[in-house]
Amino acid sequence: MNELSFHKKLGGSEPAAKHRQALRISLKCDSADEVDQAGDRCDGRLSKSSEAIARDRQRWLISPLFDLMFVCGAAPWILGFVTYLILGSDIRAIKGSPAQQALSIFLVTASLLIGESHQFTSIIRYYDLGRKQKKSYKLHRFPFWFLYAVAALIIVALAAQAMGWGALLNPVISPIGVALVPVFSTAMSFFPVVLMHHFCAQAQAVGQIYCGKQGYKLSKLEKVCLSISSWSLVAAGASTIAAPFGSGGMLSSVGASQLIAAGSALGGPGTLAQLAVSFACLAILGTTYLFIKRGMMKSEWLPSGAVYLWINLATLILLPLPGLIYMWLFVPIFLHASQHWTVAYLAQQDDLKKQGREPQSSFAEFAGDICKLVLPVQALSLCVLFLPLIVAQMLGEFSEGLSSTLSVGWSMLVFYLHYFSDRIVWRP
Amino acid sequence: MRYVQSEFESKSLKRVFVMVSSVLALTFAVPYIATAYSVELVKAPVLVPESTTLLNPMSSVIVRSHHVKAPNVVAGSPGMIGAMLSDASNTRTRLLWSMYPAAVRGRIFGANGGDPTIGGGW
Predict the structure, then answer these.
(1) Which of A93, A227, B14, B66 sits CB 3.0–4.6 Å from B42 for a disulfide?
(2) A239 by DSSP, 3-state: which?
(3) pTM score over 0.80
(4) Given its phi and psi angles, is residue A170 left (phi above 0), alpha (psi -120 to 50 degrees) or beta?
(5) What is the H or E stretch that residue B22 is in?
(6) Closest chain A residue to B109, measured at CA
(7) Per-residue DSSP letter, A13
(8) Helix, strand, or coil here: A262?
């Protein structure tokens, strides 16, 4: 009796019997029992792998590899190390080589496509969905009115420059000039602190998403300690790696230079930076102690994604190794911006799910979602950041005045818009 | 974040990542490296009749080098990374500014190498 008729006799369906026969041939089994055993083994493997996939879904935003590379920040270390191997350790000896040119092209492309454009994901979301949120975040919206006023000032300044009305910008005789100077000096002075806060706050929030995904509820004390650590990292970063004018120039417009000078007088140059770094180390040690204590006492360990991300952040900001500059080449793009794009993609999918759309079932749907997310952002990035520069370069006579002031002021404006919209749109 | 990522999307993202990386590599890096190395490879010997050989009478063959210059798609790209690293190394307090995407844009479009403290950068 062959297997098909045997199954029919037992009441099994014909397709199932055919499937079993095919399975027996594919598994090279001699008897039906062997097929059963092999099937059980396969089922065991399948259930195990499906469990692993479900676990991964719970633990990571996209997938373990993607998250480790582009959300937790392994990519900058790998790319930085590769760059170090290619260029060598002696930075002063680096000349324009073909390998360096290839790296530059890669960096420029990634910087423009991923880094520059990520600012517009939150800006577009703010003007699209953010303003319809039930919670109004009135205090958070206040800076936007200030930024609109700054945008108007910049436009007037550009028009004045283009029309040759230079006197309009003169701070001695014109109210526009009087308004422009403190606005820009304040924006430039605060930029290091705001930039570091933007960087650290995003990493803190993404770490908390990992905690939320695994049901690791942070206590009030842990949240406070995390915030203190984050702000101490901001202070340490702003006074060590994000102060282009040196510590004396930072916050000069709000009178902090006197404080810095006083600190320097008491303990020598760089005292404030040393204090900030020391405090950050202490705050991080304290927070780490809290999490380890909880793990030891209650067997509740901090999710691995959050651990990798926060350790990475602290290492990149606090570790004073000169070789870290190779990693920093890629940190703004492949840690911060890629993290931002990941959150934007997840938020888009969350919105689509709320609108009742079925989960993606084809590659075309997936590609469509990516295009809907990426293309408007890239288009806006091109129009706002690059077209004015390209036009200014084409009109040669403007290039000295217009392109420089336009790009600095405009870049600051876009950054601050991104910073404030970020603080609204990713909230529930 | 309530949304749970599906396995399908995870695989698709990997596929897109590989595709985009490949396109970027093919578009930019490979031609540059290939052109750059062709500087060495194109040093193929060019046979010149012995009668015209005046420089080296001991040799019957003169080797000429054909130096092919790689097209400069992005202004300042040959020395860009070196300049960025050098800036950050000289003044560590400017590390983040030097690596910021706006500074990269400034290095391409600006007159002062992307330095916002001088102006003409961003």
Answers:
(1) B66
(2) helix
(3) no
(4) beta
(5) helix B7-24
(6) A389
(7) -
(8) helix
